[in-house]
Specification:
The complex is a heterodimer of chains A (406) and B (449). With 406 residues, chain A is of the alpha/beta class. Chain A contains 14 helices and ten strands. In chain A, strands 1-4-5-10 form a four-stranded parallel beta sheet, with helices on both faces. In chain A, strands 2-3 form a two-stranded antiparallel sheet. In chain A, strands 6-8 form a two-stranded antiparallel sheet. The chains are: A alpha/beta (406), B mainly beta (449).
Chain lengths: 406, 449
């Protein structure tokens, strides 16, 4: 009897010992155990490029190709993105030169899908970048002229400003790539390409940018990278006027009906063709018309083109912006990255001087491998290029060892 | 906006699946020996609750009273950022009182007042994701139980009590704008970009109800050293009626020009204000619900190893499966009723206690408890982050002079860390770990006339 009682007692003791102290564990995101505290909470401020806009549209798949997402993965930090449902808002272009132009999933132009429900509702948004944002916009969504609000302002921030959402997250690390639209809107104006009146005044830009950095400084931020403004005159959205001469020369029969004005010639030949930029939405239809035998003229003096003085103003403004941003980075202890040097260092031909408007490449990569089907926004390859450059800058500035993206 | 009620008070079943908060410390003497009482309740009248059969043979008049102070602490740590939010609980006093009178050597009458369900679970509202399930939950239930114990044979005692139950419940939670439908649109505010965890309403439910439960037991004296006992408390469904109140919480958010709803600058607080007035779903109104207090049974033994040393053990089972469904009815037709299916589990407790008569003045007690949790893995919430527990007790009784007796006891509860959820949408699943522990201090006095 005593032996039986002891056996039962022992068995019960073992059972309780096994079951009594089974603690559940956290399921931290993969790799977070090795995360450097500097990257505990990363926020990316920006505009369409940072948001993941490609081919004239944005959808979850393009959003996840953003350099900010790629960088967050190398940091092993949780990073919530305001993902959109397919086909996006607006849907990315599939065939830019098709007539009519086609979009993702056959969606109509201008369609706008809602925010995507995620398996774990994001408690906040780390990628606070909003397509169309100017430097002014990061602190004020409500000014109808200066804030440049659009549906994505609401979809991505839900009533917050970029700085408002950033403060909610209280980041330890930031990247800021803002200011591109302060010159891009002027450069790509459909009615007056390069319209200098649409450029954000440098003084106004500096005030907005400085106020943004002051706001970021009120958080727990311990590091970051300020990215310079892209030289919008380098994007394949534009072709120099003289390139149209070369294209006609290469296709004398096909483009026999295309008449090019003397201003399209290079300066060495008495023209301005090396300092006039022709936006493809204006120039390509003329080439298309001519190829169908319709007499068409491009004078390289049209208001839709960027004229030399306007080009000079755009380039000077970008330079002025970037001098300020670089100085601010140095003064505030951030790293600085010049994005333009990344693209000018690419092998010759990486950015085509003229879009491919026929054949398979006209659909798959009309503006090369580094710019998407709108000629303005970078492709996934470019985002990887930017992410790796950021990693190098961060490692150098903060003595870290983030791995490059292969 | 009609989706709101699907979320409101969604945590109620978890609250009630509160094996861990189902208070068993109704007497300081019993608390010191881990509540092991089925075969040998303390001789101070507390048998009214622990086993009515224990009243039989209790001579004279016994009056006892006491309080248990519960200091609970814990927190939730999320998976993503490993950020911890701590419980903000106050120290909760739980009173008890018992009076017995021996009518004859075989019959003893008694009455007891105790609170077997007393809970307060309070979380900060600032920044805690779980506030949309509940941030301040209170449950109080007072049992007043007339009881009779009868000595059937020298070896058999039986007892029966009829408990009148008065229970109140108070729930507070925030309502998340992101989960609500946009007025006039087929989508939610989340689809519009409103961040998860945007407070726009505070909801409160206050209700009370009454009922009757039965408590009976038996004790068999096997020999002079060994006794076996059992105690059974019946289930009781209590109907609660009260009020649901809603207060708008300003978000301060403003939809920018070009937004896809109004197209113009629009304060969100204006957009949703109509829900709080007229026939809107967030207008104040009456609410009713019903909750079944579960059956519970204890079976145990008491063995007198030496004349001054007794060892005891109880097995306890609580039928929490009675909380498989819960429905909340709102009088306001615009507020959809809520039906929940928490699918709770039975709980099993193992209690081991000992009592040592140190001398004629002092009795020492100690014990250990292990019990399982009632909440299934998909229903561990901030209302009651409940799970399996290990508990350790110690206590002492003192003769204070004359017929006055005093008891003190301490109990430490360590709950196993348990994964749980903080989002009302159950499909999100568990996103972190709840930790919980508590220190309990008991003080009691007993007087024999």
């Amino acid at each position: 009897m005593l032996r039986t009682t002891r056996l039962i007692g022992t068995a019960l003791g073992i059972l309780l010992g096994v079951t009594a102290c089974q603690n559940d564990d956290l399921f931290p995101p993969q790799g977070s155990a090795t995360r450097d505290p500097l990257f505990d909470r990363y926020v990316s401020v920006g505009n369409s490029i940072t948001a993941g806009f490609q081919s004239g549209g944005i959808v979850d798949s393009t959003q996840l190709q953003s350099y900010a997402v790629l960088l967050s993965r190398q940091m092993a930090t949780p990073f919530f993105v305001p993902l959109l449902n397919r086909p996006g808002c607006t849907p990315p272009i599939v065939a830019v030169f098709a007539s009519p132009r086609t979009y993702l999933d056959g969606a109509p132009a201008g369609a706008c899908a809602l925010r995507k429900a995620q398996s774990v509702p994001p408690p906040f948004i780390n990628n606070v970048a909003v397509p169309g944002a100017y430097a002014y916009s990061v602190l004020d969504n409500l000014n109808p002229t200066q804030s440049h609000p659009n549906p994505l302002t609401t979809f991505f921030l839900g009533g917050y400003t970029q700085m408002g959402m950033l403060k909610k997250i209280d980041p330890t690390f930031v990247t800021v790539w803002i200011g591109n639209n302060d010159v891009l809107g002027a450069a790509t104006s459909g009615t007056n390409g390069g319209d200098s009146t649409l450029i954000t005044d440098t003084t106004v830009f500096k005030v907005s940018y400085g106020a943004m950095l002051d706001t970021i400084a009120t958080t727990s931020v311990r590091g970051g990278v300020l990215i310079g403004v892209a030289n919008v005159t380098l994007i394949p959205f534009f072709s120099q006027g003289q390139i149209y001469l070369a294209v006609k020369a290469a296709n004398p029969v096909l483009l026999a009906s295309l008449t090019l004005g003397p201003n399209c010639a290079p300066s060495a030949s008495g023209g301005k063709g090396d300092s006039v930029l022709v936006p493809f939405p204006f120039g390509l239809p003329k080439v298309d018309s001519a190829s169908r035998g319709l007499p068409t003229t491009l004078t390289c003096t049209e208001t839709q083109t960027v004229q030399p003085a306007e080009l000079k103003k755009l380039v000077a403004t970008v330079g002025s912006y970037n001098a300020f941003i670089s100085a601010q980075a140095a003064a505030r202890g951030y790293a600085y990255l010049d994005p333009n040097s990344l693209f000018t260092a690419l092998p010759a031909g990486s950015i085509p001087p003229f879009p491919t408007f026929s054949g398979a490449a006209a659909v798959t990569a009309p503006f090369g491998n580094f710019f998407s089907r709108d000629g303005v926004h970078p492709t996934a390859a470019s985002h990887k290029l930017v992410a790796n450059a950021l990693i190098q800058a961060i490692n150098a500035k903060y003595s870290k060892s983030l791995l490059s993206i292969p | 906006m009609r989706r709101f009620a699907v979320l409101l008070f969604a945590g109620v079943p978890s609250l009630l699946a509160a094996q861990g908060f189902g208070i068993y410390e109704h007497n300081t003497c019993a608390m010191g020996r881990a509540g092991v009482t089925a075969a040998g309740p303390c001789a101070d009248g507390s048998a009214v609750f622990f086993n009515p059969a224990g009243l039989a043979g209790l001579a004279g008049v016994h009056l006892s009273g006491g309080v248990t102070l519960i200091g609970a602490a814990g927190g939730f740590t999320d998976d993503f950022f490993a950020r911890r939010t701590d419980l903000d609980n106050p120290v909760i006093p739980v009173p008890n009182g018992f009076l017995t009178y021996a009518v004859s050597p075989k019959v003893t009458l008694g009455i007891g007042l105790y609170a077997p369900y007393g809970l307060e679970s309070r979380w900060p509202t600032a920044g805690f994701e779980g506030r949309f399930l509940g941030y301040d939950t209170k449950l109080q239930s007072i049992y007043v139980q007339p009881t009779v114990g009868y000595q059937v044979k020298d070896w058999l005692k039986i007892g029966l009590g009829v408990a009148y139950v008065h229970s109140t419940i108070e729930l507070h939670q925030r309502v998340d704008l992101s989960t609500q439908g946009v007025p006039g649109q087929p989508f939610t505010f989340a689809a519009l970009g409103i961040a998860t965890g945007t407070d726009f309403a505070d909801a409160a439910l206050n209700a009370s109800g009454n009922g009757v439960a039965f408590n009976f037991g038996a004790i068999v004296k096997v020999n002079d050293r060994l006794s076996i006992g059992a105690h059974f408390l019946t289930r009781k469904t209590i109907g609660y009626s009260g009020d649901a109140a809603f207060t708008q919480v300003n978000t301060g958010l403003i939809l920018s020009p070009g937004n896809p709803v109004t197209g113009t600058t629009t304060p969100i607080d204006l957009l949703v204000a109509s829900n709080f007035s007229g026939s809107g779903p967030l207008t104040n109104g009456a609410a009713t619900t019903s909750i079944t207090m579960p059956d519970q049974v204890s079976i145990g033994l008491s063995y007198k190893a030496q004349d001054n040393w007794t060892v005891m053990a109880d097995y306890q089972m609580v039928d929490w499966t009675v909380f498989s469904t819960l429905k909340i009815d709102f009088a306001n037709a615009g507020t959809p009723d809520v039906t929940l299916t928490p699918q709770n589990k039975d709980t099993h407790g193992f209690r081991f206690g000992t009592e040592y008569q140190y001398n004629s003045q002092v009795t020492l007690r100690a014990g250990y408890i292990y019990h399982t949790g009632a909440s299934p893995a998909n229903f561990v919430t901030p209302l009651l982050p409940e799970g399996a527990r290990n508990e350790f007790t110690a206590g002492a009784g003192f003769k204070l002079g004359g017929n006055l007796h005093g008891d003190v006891a301490y109990q430490y509860i360590k709950q196993n860390d348990r994964r749980g959820r903080v989002y009302p949408d159950a499909s999100v699943g568990n996103t972190g770990v709840f930790a919980f522990h508590a220190h309990l201090f008991g003080f009691g006095l007993a007087y024999t006339f």
